[in-house]
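Example (one chain per record):
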Amino acid sequence: MKRTKKWLITMSLSIGAVMGGAVSAQALVAPPSTYDAVVITPGNYSELAAATGDYNCLAYALGNTSIWEWPWGKSNPTASQVSSYMLTKGKNTYSLSETATTGMIISYGTSSSNITHFSKVADANYSNAKWGNLERLQSLGHNPYKPKGIYGYAIAKYKN
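Predicted structure:
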């Protein structure tokens, strides 16, 4: 059963990635173990764009792929600080129970005091995110990261 479930997830990601224009995971710059350490389900990522240090997760989620945007310096913000910043970008904060809609931004963290990452909702089933200096990747689900991993779990949603 577990093997079948993993196969179904892998196939769903592969089909969705191909339909969405993603390239094969074999083209990734780091070994699979690097990516698998981040996601709950190994292999739950497909490349959407090449690795680059030109922009990060927050910039991508806000629609900019030409700058590195992290207004909190070398610190990670709190959920409250993120909500305040998002207001300056015209985005209101919503709870996780809010239905995800295309373009909605999701913040992730190890706690509400340590927001570490952002993604953008691609559709009802997928989220897209820029992983630091690595690739822009698509994952099945809106909360694909290990809760105790570097990105943590989904904290809040933001939209216009």
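Caption: The longest strand covers residues 114-121.
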